[in-house]
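Retro notes
What went well: the complex prediction finally ran end to end.
Inputs used:
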Amino acid sequence: MNALLSYCRSSIGKKTIVAVTGLLLILFVTGHLVGNLQFFLPPEWINAYGHKLQSLGALLWVIRLGLLAVVGTHILATISLTLQNRKARPQGYAVPAYRASTAASRTMIVSGLILVCFIVFHLLHFTVRVVPGHTYNEEIHLVDGTVVNHEIGGFTKHWGIPLGDVPAHTVHNVHDMMVAGFQRWYISAFYIVGMFLLCMHLSHGAASFVQTFGLRSRQIEKGLTIGSRLFAWAIFLGYSSIPASVLLGLVKATGSTCCK
Amino acid sequence: MHTPHLDSKTPAGPLESKWQRYCFDSKLIAPHNKRKYKILVVGSGLAGGAAAATLAEQGYAVECFCYQDSARRAHSIAAQGGINAAKNYQGDGDSVYRLFFDTIKGGDFRAREANVYRLAEVSSAIIDQCVATGVPFAREYGGLLANRSFGGSQVSRTFYARGQTGQQLLLGAYSSLVRQIGLGAVKMFPRTEMLDLVVVDGHAKGIVVRDMVSGKVRSHAGDAVLLCTGGYGNVFFLSTNAKGCNVTATYRAYKRGAYFANPCFTQIHPTCIPVAGDYQSKLTLMSESLRNDGRVWVPKKKEDCAKPPAQIAEEDRDYYLERKYPSYGNLAPRDISSRSAKEACDDGRGVGPGGLGVYLDFADAIKRFGEPVIKERYGNLFDMYERITGENAYKQPMRIYPAVHYTMGGLWVDYNLMSNLPGLHVLGEANFSDHGANRLGASALMQGLADGYFVIPHTLPNYLATVKPGTVKPDAPEFKQAEAEVNERTRKLLSIKGKRTVDSFHRELGLLMWDKCGMARNEAGLKEALKRIPELRAEFWSNVFVPGEGEELNQSLEKAGRVADFLEFGELMCLDALTRKESCGGHFRTEHQTPDGEALRDDDNYAFVSAWEYVQGGEPVLHKEPLVYENVKLATRSYK
Amino acid sequence: MHRKTMNFTLRVWRQKSANAAGRFVDYPARNIPDEASFLEMLDIVNEELEARGEEPIAFDHDCREGICGMCSLVINGLAHGPNGSHATTCQLYMRLFDDGSTIYVEPFRATPFPIIKDLVVHRAALDRIQQAGGFISNRTGSAVDANANPVSKRDADGAMDAAACIGCGACVAACPNASAMLFVGAKVTHFARLPQGQPERDRRVLAMVGQMDKEGFGNCSNHYECEAVCPAEIKVDVIAHLNRDFDIAKLKSATVGV
């Protein structure tokens, strides 16, 4: 225990915490995107996906709290590192000049903290669904009075996994909620800006954790830099495509009768 | 001439077994007594760093001083080429005796046989020691150590770490030193300059230093003082030495009674980047290895000198080293190549600014091997040359000129590395002992580490065993007296408030020394210098301007103190050069040369070490230590 | 003989002593030969200051050939200045600057490098890190034959790449976080790649990182500014090496002991 504590207090230990939590968040962001991109498939896909997640019950809360802990640790460790860094260089140079670092690498704490605000909004928007001015009338009414087992709109499986019981008469129409949610341009713009910050954050972070784990070398240096940037842009394009396509009218609400 | 002080204390017996017998006969200090002895080590280069680390490891209480901000920055760090050792890893017939012979011959037979033999003998252990401390010497694919050859020998015995051998060896010694600092066995005093030696009852018992940050002057008492303070090449102002290198420690010791030996033996390195202008602060050496592929030439006709080199036809070029020394050609030893460059320039055929340069041309080598091969061999040197001069040496020949590089002279020491002042030991470049009148390449690193790692730890106990530890404290009257003198000198320097800067005096002295006591000397010139130096010194003490205060970081004051000593020391150098009426190694007297311009040694009259004794208010007194050669036959060096 | 001269305005950080307040002061640098090095330019300015009876600008320097690591300075925001190739301030030449330009000259700034005067800083923190473990413990004279343990050329070269560090501290000065990881990484990698360095490998990395943290350096956040200014061309690979060795050593110290 003592060893763990002293490790966590050391410079490299703290960095490793940031790298480990960062890697977990990268995995989450990637998974979340893959899930979200079902938006472009027939609505049953994403609705079934949403239902599947909702039906995890206690496990869902474990995952949610786990994610929260990961994010929290990531933030606490980086804030602690940043405070130490500021203390080590209280006075900057009169004309700062840079050769190797990027705007992304130098603004990690800024992009990170804005992303925290983004996450809070995003949760309020789509998870808690309390953003004022929104109506959340996007429930799908299944066949009246009939309990449909093991099926949503003809889906019995999602990604090969059986849906199991669909206990209610209605499921959440995630698809239309997203369409409704992105109809307002300023909300979409906020999301796209948020995703750009995420892109910046990842373009540095996705290569950084490899270095912190001690796995970077001269041989993979170039590939790693390019790879992390490509990855970051892919995440940006993937996420931004959803609000963009709604704004451009490429994807429209299906209405609650879709599954009849 | 009977000089009882100059007993070299060379052990009797055959050359090959002197050192072993010496070690066997040495007195030992019991482990529990060692910590009672305090050793003051001044300088943290190869000699000082290695000595401080080893003595501390053996149990002595060591204090180590350096003027740089860290022990790791001593100027040993700048050595490029390599370190010699008689390992015979190449199986090319090397041996301790061969290394000994090459070194003594390279020194033009002006070094002490027994010292040089010991140096060759311990050379092998140095390599073992360095590898064990983690020095990353170059290796072959099989994992064994690689060697290269160097000037003045026919075997391949030089170990190297790229072009940074000195750096790696110093960092090796430094790592051993910091280990002892961490253990509390060495107290390190960086940014601390020694300003005087304290002698009590005829024994060196301490030093007076100035803390260069606070400006405070204080005393350190010890049971022995080791001066490892390097050479005095900066008397010439322009040299390849670091800017801070100075003669103060050894010169102060000289003024306290230690003899200064062979001060006129200075080495001029042939391959340096020429002086570009009078603002220049330092000369940069380029590895001698360049001469393996570069051809040295100047135009045959004076009127061609201003032309771009490409426009000078082949038949109008004088490849003078190949012409004069057909068998060694461009690889002639340092002193000879340097002097030949000077002759060409004196003849009005020098190239570049001020006509002080010769071409080192790689065109033939590039034609023969292709640019990639040359780049592979010397890429970093070509880059450095371009950075400094702005010229691309792949397209046009380099310009080179000789520069002061190393000083063979130094405080006189006996076989124990102890000066005539009991307790005062002198190691590395600061002493005079092993290189005679000319040092071979890759031998300076060898000597510094030999002295520090392997010689002094065996010889110092012989002195310590004769003294009771800790008898003198820094509050003794001798210390107070020395401190007062140091403070008075500082006060005086600061109070002159004249019109000229310290550097302007240093430049003037340097130029004078270079002209009169540089690559070639003669009686008239030396006498002129001996007249001019006291005048310059008098002007310095009446017209120098040293700004700032004593009790703060004051770099002008530091320089002023050093230049003041150079202004006295330069005179001693010229006096020594004047007295030595022969040519040998780095000391070339124009009156003493063969008809074809080669150095003419006079073994009948000058086979001795000149050891100068300071006399307050009078001429220094010359003591001679005869050089007795029992094993080698004195011969004329020929590289024709 | 051809001699181009240039003029500059120097905006130099002047600070009388460690605790005094510092400020920028402008000095003209006139008729500077374009072949002069940056330090020679400062020499010229200092000579003029002295000639006017003013105190010269204090700056650290020694070998002036790029190897001792004594010279420092942040010039126009860059540690060791705007050198195209990797080099120290003493090997920076005035021809690289625009004639007539204003040049900012500042000390290396980092809490573990307190300013002594003007542009001179204390870098003893780096020495203390090395004291903590940057060595191989062996007694003088006890070494085995140098060829007894072959070292692959790859490892010898890798060790040499790291050992080339000149300890100037530019990595710290250039790092936006004032981290010393490149320096510590270089030392750790140098010894870790040699067989002689193995017995103390774990203890060394733990001790050196411990001391580094104690000194108050910042943390590496992979900006790689250090690599970009390093005059010895030390690569950030050594930081990866350091991270790896530290993690392993910590794990070992918690389990089997080091």
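What we learned: Chain C has two domains: 5-106, 123-255.
What to try next: split runs per interface for comparison.
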